[in-house]
Amino acid sequence: MPDIDPHVARLLDASHPGKNAGADSDDEDALIAELEEDDDPAFAAMRERRRQQLHAELNRAKEMKAGAHGVYSIITDEKELMDITTSTKWCVVHFMKPDFNRCRIMDEKLRVLAEKHFDTRFVGIDVENAPFLVVKLQIKVLPCVIAFLDGVGADRIIGFEGIGYKPDNFTASELEARLLQAGVLTRAKMNEEDDRRRAKSEAKDREEEWDEDEWD
């Protein structure tokens, strides 16, 4: 993937490219206007190149969104999940149980990241629907997030281990940093606004008693 001009990257990362298919034209016009407004006159010669790059990235985001990128998807078929991990360069899989509080928190963070990182496929599966993989991958504690690079596991997050500094919670930015280290994200894209997006619902979840995260 070619390097993106920092000005273009900043605008793209502040938006959610490809998220609203019906407003693509308006979104692109607004981003181009912001790009030109933000541009330093000394770099006027670069404007056209930046415009073209922004247009290309928005089109690429739209195409990948059509292929289920840019969203966090729940998969119900084990074979489909195996096909996804072996056919996608970067993939993040959440093995979970929907009634576990910690799994719900992980779901929320992965949804936020999926909207930003459309190059990476983000999926979740109920462990009840993946008996073969649960045994093969030796999944015993939930939530369990496995980052796949070209079909090979590059990192495994068990519970909330190794994410942030709080034992019972973490931010999407902290999860992003962990996945960046695993090599399954292109670059850091999160900001403070993104971390606040679901804070209210997460605070409600934290008030509830934690479910036991041992699973067998």
UniProtKB/TrEMBL annotation:
Residues 1-10, 190-207 have a biased composition (Basic and acidic residues). Residues 1-27, 190-216 are annotated as: Disordered. Coiled coil: none annotated. PANTHER family: THIOREDOXIN DOMAIN-CONTAINING PROTEIN 9 (PTHR21148). This is Thioredoxin domain-containing protein plp1.
